[in-house]
Write a structure and sequence with these properties.
The structure holds two protein chains of two kinds.
Chain A (H helix, E strand, L loop, with lengths): L1 H19 L6 H25 L4 E8 L2 E6 L2 H24 L6 H20 L3 H19 L5 H31 L13 H25 L7 H9 L2 H27 L1 H4 L3 H23 L3 H22 L2 H32 L10 H4 L1 H15 L5 H16 L4 H28 L17 H19 L1 H15 L1
Antiparallel strand pairs in A: 1-2
Helix pairs in contact in A: 1-2, 1-4, 2-3, 2-4, 3-4, 3-9, 3-13, 3-18, 4-5, 4-9, 5-6, 5-9, 6-7, 6-8, 7-9, 8-9, 8-12, 9-12, 9-13, 11-12, 11-17, 12-13, 12-16, 12-17, 13-15, 13-16, 13-18, 13-19, 15-17, 15-18, 16-17, 16-18
Chain B lengths: L1 H17 L5 H24 L6 E5 L5 E4 L3 H24 L6 H20 L3 H19 L5 H31 L13 H4 L3 H16 L10 H4 L5 H28 L1 H4 L3 H23 L3 H22 L2 H32 L10 H4 L1 H15 L5 H16 L2 H29 L18 H19 L2 H11 L4
Antiparallel strand pairs in B: 1-2
C-alpha cells in the first residue's frame, strides 16, 4: 500500500523538484539524476504491483461524498507495468535524443510528473480520483508537446489542451449523473448501477454513459475528436511522442474500460443505442485512421494516424462487450503499446541522426541504420498482424469476439474493416522498410555512411521489440492472466 | 452594535481627508488598523450573533430600517470582511502610482460599511436603501482617473445601477403589499390569501425585480457597465467589481428569491424558466466575449459576468441544494477572481502592460504573480483539488438533484463555459510561460515581482483557493446549514 502511494508521489515530487530546482550545468549529472528517479519509480511500481494485493487506500476526502482513493486490481497491474516499461525505455532513449533540444531539465521534470500521474491513473480506485488525475495528466503533459516552443508546437499544445479538456468536461457531465444515481463511485466489477435505477432513469444514464465514452474517447483519439493527435505528435520531441502514443492515449482506453465495465456495467449497455453508436464510431475511426495514414507523407504524422486507427481496434473490442473481444482489446493494449513506442523511437532516431522527416526521403535508411530498421520491420509486421507476432494474437481475438457477438451487421462488418485496415497498415509501414533496405538501382552506395545511433537509443528499442515479439510467441501466459480479470467484468 | 460595524468604516472614510497626515505611512497605518479592527468586530459579531432585530428607525406601518444577522449575512459579511483588509493592503502599494489618494481611500473605506449594511439588512427596505447608497459611493471610485473614458464609464454605471434599482423597487412594493412582513424569512413572506388569482402578475413582478437586481450582478443584457467600469484602479475592479458590488446584486437576488417571494411560490412556474434561461444565456455569453477580448482586465470582467451567472444559476434552481451551490460559488469565486484581478493589477503596476499579447514570457520575470495567476486560472476552470471544482460540483449536483430538465441543460452550459474559461485563461498562462521560439528576452529587462504588500494578499488567496479545494467539507456543511435555515 505504501508502495502504491510512493510510486505515485515519488516521481511527481522528483519532477517538481527538477522543475523548480537550479539549472544543472553538467549534463551528465542531470541525466544521472533523472535516470535514478526513473529507475527508482519503476522499482517502486514493481514493488507496488507485487506486494499490494487488492488493497484499498483512501488518501483524503475532497468533499464528504468524494473520497480520493487508490485501489489495485488486475487492470491497474496491466497498465502500470506497461507504463513502467515504456516510460523507462523512452526515458533512456531521450537521454541521447534530447541532446539536440533546449531546456532538457524542463522536459525531464514534466516527463517525471506525467509518469507519476499516469501511475496514479492506473491505481485510481474511483471515478473522481480518476477524473482528478485525468485533468492533471492533461495539464502536465501539454508542456511536453509545446516543448520546443515553435509556433507550430505551441498551437499543437493548445489544441491538445483544449481537446482534452473538452473531453474531460464531457466526462464530468456524466460524472454528475453517476454520482447521483449510482450506488458508489468506487470501481466495482460489473457496475454500480442498480437494476431499479437502471429501469427508472435508464435514458438519462445512457446519455451520461455516451458522453463519458465520447469524453475519454478524446484522449483515445476516437472520431470525431481525434484531430489533436495528428497535431501534437509531430510537434513533440520523439520520446514524448512515444509515450503519448503508447501510454497517454491508452489512458483514454483505461477510462473507457473503467466507465463501461466498472461503473455502468456491460449488462447495462449491451444492446443499447450507445453500443451501436460506439461501434460505428470505432469502425469509422479504424478505417479513417488507416486511410489517412496511408496518404500521409510526414512520418510522425503517419504514425499518429496509425495510432488513431489502432486505438480504435482496442475500443472496438471493448464495444463488442464479450470475453473474446475484451481479451483481444487488452492484448492489443500491450502489443500496440510496445510496438508504437518502438516505431516512434525509431523514427525519432532517424530524425535525430539524419534530420529527415518524410517517408519518401528514407531511401537506403536500412543500410545506414540496420539495427534500428530491423526492429522497425519486426514491429511493423507485428502491427499488421502477421503470425507469430503479438499483433496477430490480439487481432485474432478481436475478430473472434466480433464474429461470436451476434450483434447484427457489426459481427461481420467489424472483422472485414479490421482486415482492410490491416492491409492499409502494411501499405503505410512496409514501404519504408522496402525503400530502406532495397534502394533501387541508381542508389549511390559510395555516399553511404553508417549512422547507427549510440546504445542509449538502440538498447531500449531492442528491448521493447523483444517484448512485443515475446507476447506473440507466448500469449498463453498473458491471456491466462487477462482472463482472470475479464471473467469478473463481462 | 450592528450599527457600529457599519459606521466605523464610513466614519473612517470621512475622517481620512480631514486628518492632516504628515506622512503617507501614517495614513496607511491608521486606515489598515481601522479596517482590521472592523473586520475583527464583524467576525466577533458573526460568531456571537443574536436572533434579535435591531431597529434604527421606524417609518409608517411595517416599514423600518432594521438590521439582523442571519445565515446569509454571515456568509456575505464574513466574506467581505475577510477580503477587505487584504485588498486595502494591496491598494496601498497600487495607489502610489495614482493621484488623489485620499479621495480614493475615503470612498473605498466607506464602501466597506455600506456593503456590510447590505449584508446585515433585516428587511427589503433597508437592503434597498444600502443598495442605492452602494451605487453612490462607488461611482467616484470608477471615475477616479478623471479621464474621459472613466467619466463615461462611471456615468454608464450610475444609470444602469439606478435603473436596475428602480425595477427592484417595484418588487419591493409588491412584497410590502402582498407579504405578511417585509422582514427576510427563509421560505418567503407572501400570503396566499392576499394574492388570490393574481399569481401571474406577481410572477411577472418577480422577474422584473430579478432583472432589476440582476443589473448589478451583470445579467445579460445589462452587463456592459461592468467591463467599462474596469477603467477604475485595480483594487476597485478586483474587490468591488468582482466581489462586493456585483455580489451585492447576487446577494439581493438570493434575498428576493429565497427570503421574500419564497421558492415554493416560484418553483416550477414560467418565471423560473425565464430567469434560468436568461442566466444560462449569460453564462455562455460572458465566456464567449471573454475569449474574444484582448484587454486583460476586460477579459477578466467578462469572466466575472459569466461566473456571477453561475451563482444565479444556483439561485434559480430554487432548492436548498441550489442555494448551497450558489453560496459556495459566491464565496469561492470571490477568492479566485480577486486573486486573478490582483495578478493583472500587479502586471499593470509593474510594467504598464494592459493587453494579453503583451504578456509573452512574463512568467519567468514575475514567477510569483504568474504562478498564482495559473493557480487561479486552473481553479476557475474547475480543476479538481482547487476551489472552483467544489463549487461547480455543488451547482451541478443540485441541478441533477432537482430533476428539472432545463437545469440539466444548465449543466451543459456550465461545462461549455468551463471549456471557454480554459481557453481564455490558459492562452494567457501559455503565453507567459512559453513565449515563441524567437522571443527576445531582453525586452523584459528590469521587470520583477512586486513588493510584499502586493504579494501577501496574493499568497493568502492562493492558500484559500487550494484549501477550499481540498478541505471543503466544513464550509460546505456550514452553507448547507444556512440553506436549511439553521442560523
Amino acid at each position: 500500500m505504501q508502495y502504491m502511494l510512493l510510486s505515485v508521489f515519488f516521481p511527481v515530487v522528483a519532477g517538481i523538484s527538477l522543475l523548480v530546482g537550479k539549472e544543472i550545468k553538467n549534463r551528465k549529472i542531470l541525466l544521472i539524476t533523472t535516470g535514478t528517479f526513473l529507475a527508482v519509480t519503476s522499482i517502486l511500481i514493481m514493488l507496488a504491483v507485487c506486494l499490494s494485493g487488492e488493497s484499498i487506500y483512501t488518501l483524503f476526502s475532497l468533499t464528504d461524498r468524494l473520497p480520493i482513493l487508490f485501489k489495485m486490481d488486475g487492470v491497474s497491474v496491466v497498465f502500470a507495468v506497461m507504463a513502467a516499461i515504456i516510460f523507462s525505455g523512452a526515458g533512456v532513449f531521450s537521454f541521447e535524443y534530447m541532446k539536440h533540444e533546449e531546456k532538457e531539465k524542463r522536459f525531464y521534470g514534466f516527463y517525471l510528473i506525467v509518469f507519476g500521474i499516469l501511475i496514479a491513473l492506473c491505481f485510481a480506485g474511483n471515478l473522481i480520483t480518476f477524473y482528478l488525475f485525468y485533468e492533471m495528466l492533461t495539464l502536465s503533459s501539454f508542456p511536453l508537446v509545446l516543448h520546443n516552443r515553435s509556433r507550430e508546437a505551441v498551437m499543437a499544445g493548445l489544441k491538445y489542451l483544449f481537446y482534452s479538456l473538452c473531453g474531460a468536461y464531457m466526462v464530468l457531465f456524466g460524472l454528475y449523473f453517476v454520482e447521483r444515481y449510482g450506488n458508489t463511485l468506487t470501481f466495482s466489477a460489473g457496475g454500480v448501477i442498480s437494476a431499479q435505477v437502471a429501469a427508472d432513469h435508464g435514458e438519462f444514464l445512457l446519455f451520461a454513459a455516451f458522453f463519458m465514452i465520447l469524453g475519454f474517447g478524446v484522449k483515445a483519439g476516437m472520431f470525431p475528436l481525434h484531430a489533436w493527435l495528428v497535431a501534437a505528435h509531430p510537434a513533440a520531441p520523439a520520446p514524448a511522442s512515444a509515450v503519448f502514443s503508447a501510454m497517454i492515449v491508452k489512458v483514454g482506453v483505461l477510462g473507457i474500460i473503467r466507465v463501461v465495465y466498472y461503473i455502468f456495467g456491460a449488462s447495462f449497455l449491451r444492446g443499447s443505442w450507445v453500443q451501436t453508436v460506439w461501434l460505428t464510431l470505432t469502425l469509422l475511426t479504424v478505417f479513417m485512421g488507416s486511410m489517412l495514414a496511408y496518404r500521409e507523407p510526414v512520418l510522425k504524422k503517419r504514425l499518429a494516424y496509425s495510432t488513431i486507427s489502432q486505438i480504435s481496434y482496442i475500443l472496438f473490442g471493448l464495444a463488442v462487450m464479450n470475453g473474446e473481444g475484451v481479451t483481444g482489446s487488452l492484448l492489443h493494449v500491450l502489443c500496440h503499446g510496445f510496438i508504437k513506442a518502438v516505431l516512434f523511437l525509431c523514427v525519432g532516431a532517424v530524425i535525430y541522426q539524419t534530420g529527415k522527416t518524410r517517408a519518401d526521403e528514407l531511401r537506403g535508411i536500412g543500410k545506414e541504420m540496420p539495427l534500428l530498421m530491423i526492429c522497425y520491420t519486426i514491429v511493423s509486421l507485428g502491427l499488421i498482424g502477421i503470425p507469430p507476432m503479438g499483433g496477430f494474437v490480439s487481432k485474432w481475438h478481436l475478430a473472434i469476439g466480433a464474429l461470436s457477438s451476434g450483434i447484427p451487421v457489426f459481427d461481420w462488418l467489424g472483422p472485414v474493416i479490421l482486415l482492410v485496415s490491416a492491409l492499409l497498415t502494411a501499405g503505410y509501414l512496409l514501404p519504408i522498410t522496402i525503400q530502406g533496405f532495397f534502394p533501387v538501382e541508381d542508389y549511390d552506395y559510395g555516399a553511404l555512411q553508417k549512422k547507427e545511433p549510440s546504445p542509449l537509443m538502440t538498447v531500449p528499442v531492442l528491448l521493447l521489440t523483444l517484448l512485443s515479439v515475446l507476447i506473440g510467441l507466448m500469449p498463453e501466459e498473458v491471456i491466462r492472466y487477462l482472463t482472470q480479470i475479464i471473467e469478473k467484468i463481462v | 452594535m450592528i450599527m457600529l460595524i457599519i459606521l466605523i468604516p464610513i466614519l473612517t472614510g470621512i475622517l481620512i481627508p480631514l486628518i492632516p497626515f504628515k506622512k503617507r505611512i501614517h495614513m496607511e497605518i491608521f486606515l489598515e488598523t481601522m479596517v482590521i479592527i472592523n473586520s475583527v468586530l464583524v467576525w466577533y459579531m458573526l460568531v456571537h450573533h443574536s436572533e434579535s432585530i435591531f431597529t434604527l428607525a421606524n417609518f409608517t406601518g411595517n416599514l423600518s430600517v432594521s438590521f439582523k444577522i442571519d445565515g446569509m449575512s454571515m456568509v456575505f459579511g464574513g466574506l467581505v470582511s475577510a477580503l477587505w483588509p487584504l485588498a486595502t493592503l494591496y491598494a496601498f502599494e497600487y495607489m502610489t502610482k495614482e493621484e488623489h489618494e485620499k479621495t480614493f481611500f475615503m470612498f473605498y473605506t466607506m464602501t466597506y460599511g455600506v456593503t456590510l449594511g447590505i449584508a446585515m439588512a433585516a428587511n427589503l427596505l433597508t437592503m434597498y436603501f444600502f443598495y442605492e447608497l452602494l451605487t453612490l459611493v462607488t461611482v467616484p471610485l470608477v471615475m477616479h482617473t478623471l479621464t474621459r473614458e472613466a467619466i463615461l464609464a462611471s456615468r454608464k454605471y450610475l444609470y444602469y445601477s439606478l435603473g436596475g434599482a428602480a425595477f427592484a423597487f417595484i418588487g419591493l412594493i409588491f412584497v410590502i403589499i402582498y407579504g405578511s412582513t417585509t422582514n427576510f424569512v427563509l421560505g418567503g413572506v407572501l400570503e396566499p390569501e392576499k394574492i388570490g388569482d393574481r399569481t401571474n402578475i406577481l410572477l411577472l413582478i418577480y422577474v422584473i425585480a430579478f432583472v432589476g437586481f440582476g443589473v448589478k450582478a451583470a445579467l445579460c443584457p445589462f452587463n456592459s457597465w461592468l467591463p467599462d467600469a474596469g477603467v477604475a484602479p485595480t483594487p476597485v475592479t478586483a474587490l468591488l467589481h468582482a466581489v462586493a458590488v456585483v455580489k451585492s446584486g447576487a446577494f439581493a437576488i438570493i434575498r428576493l428569491t429565497y427570503y421574500s417571494f419564497g421558492t415554493e411560490f416560484i418553483k416550477g412556474t414560467w418565471a423560473q424558466n425565464v430567469v434560468m434561461a436568461v442566466v444560462m444565456f449569460t453564462i455562455i455569453y460572458g465566456c464567449s466575449r471573454a475569449v474574444k477580448e484582448t484587454h486583460l482586465k476586460r477579459r477578466l470582467a467578462y469572466s466575472t459576468i459569466s461566473n456571477l451567472s453561475y451563482i444565479l444559476f444556483g439561485v434559480t434552481i430554487m432548492t436548498p441544494l441550489g442555494l448551497v451551490g450558489a453560496l459556495t460559488h459566491l464565496v469561492f469565486h470571490a477568492v479566485m477572481k480577486i486573486a486573478s484581478f490582483f495578478c493583472a493589477g500587479a502586471v499593470m503596476y509593474q510594467t504598464d502592460r494592459h493587453y494579453v499579447h503583451e504578456l509573452d514570457g512574463m512568467g519567468y520575470r514575475m514567477p510569483c504573480v504568474f504562478g498564482i495567476f495559473t493557480v487561479s486560472s486552473l481553479a476557475l476552470m474547475g480543476v479538481p483539488g482547487l476551489a472552483g471544482f467544489v463549487s461547480k460540483w455543488n451547482l451541478a449536483s443540485a441541478a441533477v438533484e432537482s430533476g428539472n430538465t432545463l437545469a440539466c441543460w444548465g449543466i451543459v452550459c456550465l461545462l461549455i463555459s468551463a471549456l471557454l474559461t480554459a481557453i481564455y485563461m490558459m492562452t494567457i498562462v501559455v503565453r507567459a510561460f512559453f513565449p515563441g521560439k524567437d522571443f527576445d528576452v531582453s525586452t523584459l529587462a528590469g521587470i520583477k515581482d512586486p513588493s510584499w504588500k502586493m504579494l501577501v494578499p496574493l499568497f493568502v488567496f492562493t492558500i484559500f483557493i487550494i484549501g477550499f479545494g481540498l478541505f471543503s467539507e466544513t464550509i460546505v456543511k456550514f452553507f448547507s446549514d444556512v440553506a436549511a435555515g439553521v442560523y
